[in-house]
Amino acid sequence: MKLEDYIDDFIRKEKQQQVNPYLATRVLAKLDETETIVPIRKKAPVWQSLAVAASLALIVVMRIEIGSMAKMSQNNYASLNINDAQLENLNLYKFDDYE
Amino acid sequence: MTDEQLIEKILSGDRDAFRLLMEKYQQQVFYVAMGFVHSREDAEDITRDVFIRVFHSLSSFKEKSLFSTWLYRITMNTSINHINKNKRRNFFTEAGDSLINLFNRSNEERDAHEQLEATEIEKTIQKAIDELPIKQRKAFILSKYEELSQREIAEIMETTEGAVEQLLVRARKNLQNKLAHIVGK
Q1: Structural domains in chain B?
Q2: How high is the ipTM of this complex?
Q3: pTM of the predicted model, to two decimals?
């Protein structure tokens, strides 16, 4: 027996196996489970896309607004306090001028 | 009904059309999977996964090539993924089988020895096919299990007919080198 015959025999034996006749049913059941049987080509409706875009725009605007509010509430006491011109004049504590 | 008509119907939500398409191609997909995994259960799992994948990506099928060509590509990729995923499991299964054979061997009669020898030859051939480099293996399986022409194999593997011929020659040579001892028995 030639080597080719051994290999052909082996392949012939493997090809004697038949696929399960219920395979198609099992595949369809599996697809049903994942609930993807109908909407293959279906795209998201326009209103959904618009709603997502509007929400994103709203988030951006709100963030800008909130940022601006935080800026407005800032006061500049701190800058006043460290302003040398606002400090009490140390010359007041010198008694030389009053003598 | 042609493949194109079936695909159009499937895309518009027709379940029966998908069933028809599966029934048309399931045996071919199964044979290719058998060529890669040599086990009925695994081949059936691969066939199921292939059709689920086909269903999900059917809308992206561009019809530049035949549906069968596209299907063969998916089948080969799914089979190779399956093999890679189960490499560790196969190692333990093979080790278990070898141990069982070892223990059984001492108690067997002469007929059983012949049977065992035949099984060993089959295992050796299977191993030799599995050890072929991946491109040679693909070409060999499509040629031997599906009896496709070199032109069809070239289209599936996106290469030239000359390259496929070379792959088949090299695959045959590799198998001869690995299996030479069988012929000598």
Answers
A1: 1-88 (1.10.1740.10), 131-185 (1.10.10.10)
A2: 0.79
A3: 0.69
